[in-house]
Amino acid sequence: MPYHLFKCSECIPEREKHAVIKGPGEDLSMALPLGYLNTIPGTISERGCAYCGAKHVIGTPMKDVIHISHGPVGCTYDTWQTKRYISDNDNFQIKYTFATDMKEKHIVFGAEDLLRKNIIEAFKAFPHIKRMTIYQTCASALIGDDINALANEIMEEMPEVDIFVCNSPGFGGPSQSGGHHKINIAWVNQKVGTVEPEITSDYVINYVGEYNIQGDQVVMGDYFKRMGIQVLSTFTGNGSYDELRAMHRAQLNVLECARSAEYICNELRVRYGIPRLDIDGFGFEPLSGSLRKIGLFFGIEERAKAIIEEETARWKPELDWYKARLQGKKVCLWPGGSKLWHWANVIHEEMGVEVVSVYTKFGHQGDMEKGISRCEEGALAIDDPNELEGLEAMEMLQPDVIFTGKRPGEVAKKVRVPYLNAHAYHNGPWKGYEGWVRFARDVYNAIYSPIHQLSMLDITKDEIPTDQGFVTKRMLSDANLSDEIKNSPVLREYTGKYDSLPDLEKKVYPEFPREKSLASAI
């Protein structure tokens, strides 16, 4: 295993052990970079802090809650919902963000009075919301404001409200993952077991580590409903505050994102004896295996099997259409924590792309182990890369597309590498069978985008093609593909609506006719 020291990091030689290239025949003992360590000074890390991990990732997807940060307004603005954690209560938690807006004078004289005033004002401004979470920041932690005591006082004065306090300042861990841990444990300690739920099914689960990005939770919830399973609570996407207080009455914890929420599952197992079952909602085979596991646990395997057969028959032909056109395309898989290994193998197997690099900003050694073990030889694995290292990696690897967050994604666009938002999605949801096809469509559109192709041209000397010159246009104009469209069982119903292929090209989304199947995503 050769460690890889980026040229831009030669002045920081400690960075060498944070990047490796997976060699032929190497096992994990030979191809594992260091991870989840304190950021090396001078590397200009792009990591999120522990406060961000608690508020932005875990806390604020709760839908019926006033989420207030006790600290400077910049902390709050930086964590104002950019991940599209949608909810069925008119997206209250996305529309509004609350902060005490601490100033220098509050650092000197204390800010508990300021917090009390803000709490009362927030409840008066939104009288229909009776639940609140308060997030500690570095500023309020350093001056020692006793947020828990103040919250208890207000709950005594206003018995109709309930307040959860998360003491997770930014310096509370090497990265945002430290905040995941703190809010998980705080929720178990403060709120679980304080509400008794109504049980309506013989099969009851908590859906844990699911944040309802563009409707992921709704997709998965539909599968559970069709299996006759009651989702007692979702931690925390589209999740209700009081439902999450009743997590102790579930029969099974179904865990999706192990990096952000395994802690609460482990605590619920120790304290209440609730078993944990890890699942995966991404990809046909992983999702099918997950539904089978849940069905096996409850003894309802036939219900799971019926869903798998129905959904696979409906969506697999479309996925295969994209796989044929994405075969061999190079991908840099640069997401957060668990998607590193949720996607590493399945996008290769089911979409045909080659994973040439994996990285994580806040993942632990276990995330790297699973991610590296599932990607191809020669892949570059990086822990906590900075912007310069990311640019150097793209220059070296020449990927066709990268899956990452918005900040490194915008950098990639500047060097003419298309990206898909691995955190908030482009046109999600991406979970479920239809969602996985939607993900493949987004990959296809990113790679074959005519606008992206134009960006590669030098207008001072290169010939500017007409729309007939683009790959996507040629695909539809090709005689063989025309026959394929006309003869495909999935597409035959669409082609019959038009007199000629040109009519089809004009009236239907040009890369792939799909008026009905994915109309909601167009």
TrEMBL record:
Gene3D superfamilies, A to Z: Nitrogenase molybdenum iron protein domain
Pfam families in the record: Oxidored_nitro
Enzyme's top EC category: oxidoreductase
Domain Nitrogenase/oxidoreductase component, chain residue ranges per copy: 49-447
Record flagged with keyword ATP-binding: yes
Gene Ontology MF terms: ATP binding; iron-sulfur cluster binding; metal ion binding; nitrogenase activity
Cofactor(s) of this protein: [8Fe-7S] cluster
Keywords, ordered alphabetically: ATP-binding, Iron, Iron-sulfur, Metal-binding, Nitrogen fixation, Nucleotide-binding, Oxidoreductase
E.C. code: 1.18.6.1
InterPro entries, A to Z: Nase/OxRdtase_comp1, Nase_asu, Nase_comp1_asu, Nase_comp1_CS, Nase_Fe-Fe_asu
Catalysed reactions, semicolon-separated: N2 + 8 reduced [2Fe-2S]-[ferredoxin] + 16 ATP + 16 H2O = H2 + 8 oxidized [2Fe-2S]-[ferredoxin] + 2 NH4(+) + 16 ADP + 16 phosphate + 6 H(+)
Family named by the database record: Belongs to the NifD/NifK/NifE/NifN family.
Protein name as catalogued: Nitrogenase protein alpha chain
Organism (species): Desulfitobacterium chlororespirans DSM 11544
Lineage of source species: Bacteria, Bacillati, Bacillota, Clostridia, Eubacteriales
